[in-house]
Design goal:
The structure holds two protein chains of two kinds.
Chain A (H helix, E strand, L loop, with lengths): L5 E2 L4 E2 L3 E3 L21 E7 L12 E4 L2 E4 L8 H12 L5 E6 L4 H12 L6 E5 L16 H14 L4 E4 L7 H10 L4 E4 L3 E4 L1 E2 L4 E2 L5 E5 L4 H14 L4 E4 L5 H10 L3 E4 L2 H4 L3 H15 L15
Parallel strand pairs in A: 3-4, 3-16, 4-7, 7-8, 8-9, 9-10, 10-15, 15-16
Antiparallel strand pairs in A: 1-2, 5-6, 6-14, 11-14, 12-13
Chain B lengths: L2 E13 L2 E7 L1 H6 L5 E5 L10 E9 L2 E7 L3 H7 L6 E8 L13 E7 L4 H12 L3 E8 L8 H6 L3 E6 L6 E2 L2 H11 L4 E5 L2 H13 L4 E4 L15 E6 L2 E6 L6 E3 L10
Parallel strand pairs in B: 7-8, 7-11, 8-9, 9-10, 11-12
Antiparallel strand pairs in B: 1-2, 1-6, 2-5, 3-4, 3-6, 4-5, 12-15, 13-14
Helix pairs in contact in B: 5-6
Classes of the chains: A alpha/beta, B alpha/beta.
């Protein structure tokens, strides 16, 4: 049994495995399949202040080793979350992160202010990178200035650690990560989904009603690894890596690229017990190679 | 409580593009109800990535039957599985047909279009056991689309068929057959599963005749258990229309709740 603890500085995790926002519902949906206390933490589905309708269907399309979604962050809003979900969720012995959304800076800050008044949360993941809520995937994480301004405002408001979730749909990911770091982010998580399009050749129509969506799954893992490596090389704050992680071995690759923790996303849909399995597989990977601490793998890529 | 089972395939039957698999899954079978479904992994590699939602066709002791039509890559791979191989099955999932209604001595019409017949065999057996009079209306384009009609007869369930080309039974849509049957004897409840236009037409007929109807919707699903929010349909409850998850809030909904025109 290796030491799997992950020290993010602002928070110590039982192990480096978190579940990714938007792929794990509000968490309690998975009680039927795994013990949440086996995980380093869970990231709750993105919350705006109020309830949100989401996009019209079709919202999902499967592609080669991947999935394009345009859910549009349908959700209950913070008040219903605090009243109906959180009292139950906070009884789970794991760290609980909320993916924080907003249609403008004011709304992001209202969400943080409201959540700050709730007990039982451990960190916020600032969702500045959802591609499905505006035309052409526009989001704050596409621009270092927008990223800096929003992260700084959110950090000034928040009483909890704040991680900025970045978009891969940029030319220079390290520049965006540095903007978030300079603005005071406690960590960086990446990558959100890749802006994508699927076409039905018979009808000549997009397969999603929203036209564009976000690509996730094993298809994007090499891009995610590259970006995690670039960002981990550029900033001093901890990096949380994600993108197509299906197995413990995939997770280890992200640690080697420089991530101190990882998030499991699309895999939860296929195997609802995936996150717990990945914890065990990381342990087995370490044991088989005499690695005493999983943290010793972090940032060890030999180039 | 859904389970993940590695279920050995006991029997495989085929009629053209239609397949019926019987597999052993005791935990799933002990909890399965009509109208529920399972998410089945069709291969080990990440392409296709997602499980496929397949409705439960019958329950026999510790065995479950599924009946499906090859419609794309996923079902095509599923169809290649053979007896002796195992299926990776997650289920039972979803909220099935509401049988918490008066059924003893009541008349239920079950309307199935094509592969939409799948959940109605399980349902018909259950309704029969609860003392309801069951009549099944089974429609397809042609006689080859009605491969499991004998199964209903063998189970003692009354069945009337329709085909668009008149190759078997009533010539015309199953919805037209429903109009004929309803004029003959007004049922107490309708249960419907099939293509969207057919279900929508059935909902309209049920509304006009003031017969309550339960409709089983279908969708591409990301997860099947309420986490991804990918399989939504417009549903109106207490005057408020919302996108609800077919997998978790359904797949069965009351006809009057379903908003068919998504532009609204």
């Amino acid at each position: 049994m290796a030491d799997l603890t992950a020290d993010l500085g602002f928070l110590k995790l039982r192990n480096p495995v978190l579940t990714a926002g938007g792929t794990f519902g509000y968490g309690t949906e998975f009680d039927r399949f795994l013990d949440l206390s086996e995980l380093g933490g869970i990231v709750v589905k993105g919350l705006y202040y109020g309830p949100r309708e989401g996009n019209r269907p079709p919202r999902l399309v499967e592609t080669a080793a991947g999935l394009i979604n345009a859910i549009g962050l349908q959700g209950v809003g913070v008040e219903a979350f605090a009243a109906e979900v959180l009292p139950e969720l906070r009884r789970r012995e794991t760290t609980i992160w909320v993916n924080v959304c907003g249609s403008d800076e004011y709304e992001y800050l209202r969400v943080i202010e409201f959540l700050d008044a709730q007990d039982g949360l451990h960190a916020y993941e600032l969702n500045i990178s959802c591609p499905n809520v505006r035309q052409n995937g526009l989001c704050p994480a596409l621009n270092p200035r927008w990223t800096f301004d929003l992260v700084r405002a959110a950090k000034a408001k928040s009483r909890r650690p704040l991680v900025a979730k970045l978009s891969p749909n940029v030319t220079n990911i390290a520049e965006i990560a540095k903007a978030a770091e300079e603005a005071g982010a406690d960590g960086i998580s990446l990558i959100n989904t890749l802006l994508a399009l699927a076409i039905d050749a018979d009808t000549r129509r997009p397969k999603l009603r929203n036209v564009f969506g976000g690509l996730s799954g094993p298809a994007i893992k090499p891009i995610a690894l590259r970006m995690v490596y670039q960002v981990a090389s550029a900033v001093k704050i901890p990096v949380i890596g994600m993108g197509g992680i299906m197995t413990g071995r995939d997770a280890v690759e992200f640690l080697i690229a420089g991530a101190r923790a990882i998030q499991v996303g699309t895999a939860n849909f296929i195997d609802p017990a995936a996150a717990g399995r990945i914890v065990r597989e990381i342990d087995e990977f370490c044991d088989a190679r005499g690695i005493a601490r999983a943290a010793d793998l972090v940032g060890t890529l030999i180039v | 409580m859904p389970h993940i089972a590695h279920a050995p395939i006991l029997r495989k039957q085929r009629w053209g593009d239609y397949y019926l698999f019987t597999f052993r899954a005791p935990a799933l079978a002990s909890e399965a109800n009509p109208g529920q479904f399972a998410m089945i992994r069709v291969n080990e590699t990440p392409y296709p990535l997602l499980r496929r939602p397949i409705s439960l066709h019958a329950k026999e002791g510790e065995a479950i039957e599924i009946f499906f039509k090859v419609a794309g890559e996923g079902t095509s791979l599923l169809a290649r599985k053979n007896e002796g191989e195992t299926l990776d099955v997650l289920g039972p999932l979803g909220r099935g047909f509401d049988l918490d209604i008066p059924l003893e001595g009541k008349t239920a019409y079950l309307i199935g279009g094509g592969r939409g017949i799948a959940p109605l065999f399980f349902l018909g057996c259950e309704l029969g056991a609860k003392g309801a009079f069951v009549k099944v209306l089974y429609g397809g384009r042609t006689v080859a689309d009605l491969p499991v009609r004998d199964k209903f007869e063998n189970a003692g369930l009354e069945i009337v068929c329709s085909t668009d080309d008149g190759s078997s039974g009533y010539r015309g849509f199953v919805t037209a057959l429903l109009e004929v049957e309803i004029a003959g004897r007004r049922p107490d409840v309708l249960f419907v599963c099939g293509p969207d236009p057919m279900m929508r037409a059935c909902a309209g007929i049920a509304g006009r005749h003031k017969v309550p109807a339960q409709i089983s919707l279908e969708s591409i699903m990301g997860c099947g258990f309420g986490a991804c929010w990918g399989c939504v349909h417009r549903i109106r409850r207490s005057g408020e229309a919302k996108w609800r998850r077919i997998c978790e809030d359904g797949p069965v909904f009351a006809a009057e709740e379903i908003v068919w025109d998504e532009e609204l």
